[in-house]
Design brief:
The chain contains 11 helices and no strands. It is mainly α and 216 residues long.
């Protein structure tokens, strides 16, 4: 029994040493990103076609055809989305549901790199397709967070206790601080811009509730 207890104690100590502060914070961050992505995209599941479907308010397939006719390949580069490959109501729903399911998996603990990369690709596609419906500052903020998290997510299939903790590149740490700073600063400064009158007259709030995607 003594040898067994010593083995368990040494294993726990070794595990603790391998899982430093960076690994813990990264784990929490990835769970929050999964939750944020899920809460952002899940409300779209029952209204995505009404918004950007073939018969929707913002028929993206038709608009993409017109954009390509005007700008050609430049339009594809400026508005990257999977729907350029093939656009239909089914493809739109497939992209959305893929992102929703993978976001939930990320939230409950699956943090494989390919999962987060797929979420980012799908989220980027949906943000480009959805126009004003997914273009709020917090949507852009979440998209940037997902991209930066690709540098800290686990790209190995090994269990967590077999991974070697690695600190992210310095530029990634700086980038995380920067996007938080610029988002908070921007949300404050916007109230002092010329369009700040929209806030004081409550017009901005009315436009927000008109366009934002809310759970139903």
């Amino acid at each position: 029994m003594r040898k067994l207890s010593e083995f368990i104690a040494s294993f726990v100590q070794k595990f603790s040493q391998r899982n430093d502060e960076h690994q813990f914070i990264s784990w929490i961050l990835l769970r929050l990103i999964g939750l944020g992505s899920f809460m952002t995209l899940a409300p779209l599941t029952n209204k995505i076609l009404a918004l950007i479907g073939k018969q929707g308010i913002y028929p993206i397939c038709q608009l993409q055809s017109e954009l390509y006719g005007r700008q050609g390949i430049a339009g594809v580069v400026m508005h990257p989305t999977l729907s350029w490959i093939y656009c239909s109501d089914f493809v739109i729903q497939l992209i959305l549901y893929t992102a929703v399911v993978l976001s939930f998996l990320m939230f409950i603990g699956f943090d494989a790199g390919w999962i987060l990369f797929t979420i980012w690709i799908c989220f980027l596609s949906l943000s480009q397709m959805s126009g004003i419906f997914l273009s709020e500052m917090w949507d852009v903020f979440l998209l940037e967070l997902i991209f930066l998290s690709l540098f800290i997510v686990n790209w190995s299939w090994r269990p967590i206790f077999l991974r070697k903790p690695q600190s992210p590149p310095y530029f990634v740490s700086v980038a995380f601080v920067w996007i938080v700073f610029k988002t908070m600063l921007g949300m404050g400064l916007i109230k002092f811009y010329p369009i700040g009158e929209l806030w004081s007259s409550s017009v901005a709030i009315k436009l927000f509730f008109k366009n934002v995607i809310s759970p139903t």
